[in-house]
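Sample entry (216 residues):
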Amino acid sequence: MVAVAMLSASCGVYHPQLAEIPLIDHKGDVHVSAAISTPLSATVTMSAGVADHIAVQIYTDITSLISANYSHFAIGYYGNWEKSAFELYAGFGCGTSKVQDIDHTWLNFGKYYIPYAQANWGLKNLTKAHIDFGVSLKAGYIVPEFHIFNTERDFYSWDMETGYLIEPQLFARLGSEHVKFGLQAGYCLTNIFRTEETYYDPFAVGFGVTFFVKPK
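Predicted structure, serialized as tokens:
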């Protein structure tokens, strides 16, 4: 989804990843999406139907308030019935993050890996405004490798605790057959990233634009 978006003052080591929910129709469908989302992230998503009922997706997120980025690749199944569509993806994501407190007493930096599965469902091209809307549910496993440096004690520690990840999302977009503007909102639930040095942002909202290339 290019965009102007809402801003957020919080900035943790992770936030819900608002990859476009494409709702691929047929082989040859290509979606290219750019967006801005909270917390001050720029995202780009490319999705394509590469074969009958097979789609792939590439996504990247760069967060401006901290030195952070996240990318994933996914492959999955798609099916459509008149105005509705369903997708089921399996993917692998990896990200990096660097966070420091206001008083500069500690610095947290490192990386994490997320194997996941995601199901998308929605209605598309409703009315003359070509409205799409739907829901998504992502479930995965987080494997972090964070290094925490205490500047007061000149001491390093490591946070390698693994845990689950659940991310429901809502989206809506409208426009023309080939260009649509949309809103997307996501929530993240996990059992890790709960300390002062490794907190996360549970909510994200984004606004952007998607370009569609339909098969002839």
